[in-house]
Amino acid sequence: MKKNVNLGSISIGGNENVSVQSMLNCPSSDFDACSQQIRALKNAGCEIIRLAVTDEKDLACSKKLISEFKDVPLVADIQFDYRIAVRCSDIGFSKVRINPGNIGGSDKVKTVVDACKANGTAIRVGVNGGSVEKEFADKYGRSAKALFESAMKGVSLIERYGFDDIVISAKSSDVVTMIETYRLLNDACDYPLHIGVTESGAVGMGNIKSAIGIGSLLADGIGNTIRVSLTGDPINEVHAALDILKALNKRTYCEIVSCPTCSRCHYDMSVLVDEINELVKGVNKRLKIAVMGCVVNGPGEASDADLGIAGGNGKAVIFEKGKVIASLEYAQAVKKFKQMVGELIANIQ
User: How far apart are CA 222 and CA 213, in angstroms?
Assistant: First the structure.
């Protein structure tokens, strides 16, 4: 089990829960824009929110945000300036993300660590493929070993000053490199790991790369908090992250299963799938609903579904746990099925 690091009400590492993170992409000095985006991210299911802090205007806005949003951990993303990191700790950020290799030397790292000790601020040691220290890049090239060594050097520097409220990230835009790096980190230390594929791209391929990278690690029990890094609206990151966790049974939800259809399907199944997905949207109960294309395989293939429907030529059957309970004209069957889905959701504890 990984070491426990607390960020307000969120605990990272000391349990099996995997928390979802995202990052603001509006100006960090714009209080109204930041507030609006934080609320939207929270409503979407984001549990930890990061923002870049670079100057006095960002700091002033951040102080107001910390006061306004006491129920969500806010993380300061710092590049290069150790003084900004210290100020972020002083004003109450739950965590600061730094790369000890570019913060300005060991004495400056110590200054940041001392502030975090005094304020109860966690530190994320964050490196990625573009910030590997030169000695490791020269020795290992652009590789998992270089990322791993660079991250561990940063960790050891912080440990030198008696600090261990540490979370580690070592991301790459290359999925295979990212997976290999985190496997090395997982074997080497007991600090919680923040995992993700950096610069994964836009919705589409970015989702696929993130699902493969993050999902592969989580399936093996590696990773304590995640971010899906997508170009565009950060709400999409949260939706993708939650979908990854749902697919791995790390979030309770109502699962919809549907077959890919073939020539035996004699109705527009995709329309019904969309309607049922909309009906169960936001339902956080462990249910399985099946929408299948034909009665030949439907009840059998989806025999573990709490409720299902399978179409035929003008007719459809409704089944529970593989047992057919009704055979009706298609329109009637769809109406009854939707009614039963609603009742199932309402009645389950």
Answer: 11
Query: CA 145 to CA 127: how far, in whole Å?
Result: 13
The DSSP call for residue 131 is: S
Residue spans of alpha helices (H) in 194-310? 205-219, 235-247, 269-279, 298-301
- The 10s digit of each residue's pLDDT in 84-102 is 999 999 999 999 999 887 8
Q: How far apart are CA 330 and CA 81, in angstroms?
A: 66
Would you give the DSSP letter of residue 3?
A: P
Structure tokens at 140: 């290992």
- Do the strands 194-195 and 225-227 form a parallel or antiparallel pair, or are they unpaired? parallel
Q: Are 72 and 98 in contact (CB under 8 A)?
A: no
CA atoms within 13 A on the CB side of 195: 35
Return phi, psi of residue 23, to 5°: -140, 140
Percent of residues in the chain assigned helix, strand, coil, to nearest 5: 45, 20, 35
Scan for tokens 């561990």, then name that residue: 152
| 26 vs 232: CA distance, rounded Å | 11
Here the tokens at position 193 are 């790991």
Percent of the residues in the chain that have a pLDDT greater than 90, as a whole number: 76
Angle between helices 82-91 and 56-68 (to 10 degrees): 20
DSSP string, 143-178: SHHHHHHHHHHHHHHHHTTT---EEEEEE-SSHHHH
Query: Cα 224 to the chain's mean position, in Å?
Result: 10
| DSSP per position, 307-337 | EEEEE-SSEEEEEETTEEEEEEEHHHHHHHH
For the entire predicted model, the pTM comes to 0.92
Token code pair at residue 165: 């409220």
DSSP 128: E
How many CA atoms lie less than 13 Å away from 5 in the CB half-sphere?
Answer: 27
